[in-house]
Amino acid sequence: MAEPKSKKHRKDKPWDTPDVAHWKIDQWKEEENPTGMLEESSFATLFPKYREKYLREVWPIVTKALDGYKIVCELNLIEGSMTVRTTRKTSDPYIILKARDLIKLLARSIPVNQAIKILDDEVQCDIIKIGGLVRNKERFVKRRQRLVGPDGATLKAIELLTNCYVLVQGNTVSAMGPYSGLRHVRKIVEDCFHNVHPIYNIKTLMIKRELAKDPALQGENWERFLPVFKKKNIQTKKPHVVREKREYTPFPPAQLPSKVDKEIESGEYFMKEHERKAMKKAAKAAVNLEAKEARKAEKAATFVAPSEKETQKKRKRQEDVAAKGPSVDDLKAKFLAQGSAAKEKKTKVAASVNDFVAGPVTKAKKSKK
């Protein structure tokens, strides 16, 4: 089989053997650089106003943590900035970059207890800028909320699968963890803002984690086990509108007359200012008069007597209703019956009340005798 062009000029690397761990980070030892740093390196970053109070409270913790690595830090409240610098005693040349990441994370609302973990060799950070991925503000807010999930469930799932700490804040997503986890976090975040739901990537990561436990599948391709999510482009049905086919003309449409042209045509252009004002006032008065007349006619319509036909129809309708319903004599008898029943009930109630009142009195009289 012919070798691909991209790998034609590759040469064997005798030092790159399978037992070499490419991602392993060796622990720094003080003996490797006993003389310290010759030149001073420094980094500064700005922080928002609302973080000032918190940073002022936790700055002693930051100072103490950086003192262990011989790094000097400074909090400038006037400029609103944090600065880290190396000293002559600093031995680790990479620790200044870790200190720079520390102040960056503090400026992006990460708690100090979590941010200090960046000084460890195994922990790295990645700040993903999401502000320019979606133009529409409403769409951006919806997709950012989709990344967080209901009650932060989606974000928690991402953290468990990638072994990273993730914080969504404003226009950035800050992540802390190993390199392999940060790679997955960046992919999930960017896909989310390109309208790919995070649950798809989470499902893929879960399957990969289960496959990694099986030693028989270590050297095999896992593509056949992973789900394939196809993007569906569902078009909304638009009403079919048949437009009339216009006759083609190579000439452009005639230019519409301007305001000045219309004034010249009507003669208003040649009028004086007071004449123009009087004409506009007269036109406005005519419109008002027309509206007034319309309102007056509407009010007068309520006082117009109905026609003979309408009255006859109304009378006939009333007669039909009366014919269908009970007669006047029946209603009279019904009301009289109701009245007599109510009277009987009243007399019964009065008699019972009198008996109740009179009962104890007679007993009392007998006892006195």
TrEMBL record:
Keywords, ordered alphabetically: Nucleus, Ribonucleoprotein, Ribosome biogenesis, RNA-binding, rRNA processing
Subcellular location: Nucleus, Nucleolus
Subunit structure: Component of the ribosomal small subunit (SSU) processome.
Main localization category: nucleus
Known function: Required for 40S ribosome biogenesis. Involved in nucleolar processing of pre-18S ribosomal RNA and ribosome assembly.
GO molecular function: RNA binding
Protein name: KRR1 small subunit processome component
Stretches with biased composition (Basic and acidic residues): 307-333
Family listed: Belongs to the KRR1 family.
Residues covered by the KRR1 small subunit processome component second KH domain: 123-213
SUPFAM superfamilies: Eukaryotic type KH-domain (KH-domain type I)
GO biological process: rRNA processing
GO cellular component, one term: small-subunit processome
Keyword ATP-binding attributed: no
A Pfam family hit: KH_KRR1_2nd
Region (Disordered): 298-369
KRR1 small subunit processome component first KH domain residues: 41-121
Organism per entry: Achlya hypogyna (Oomycete)
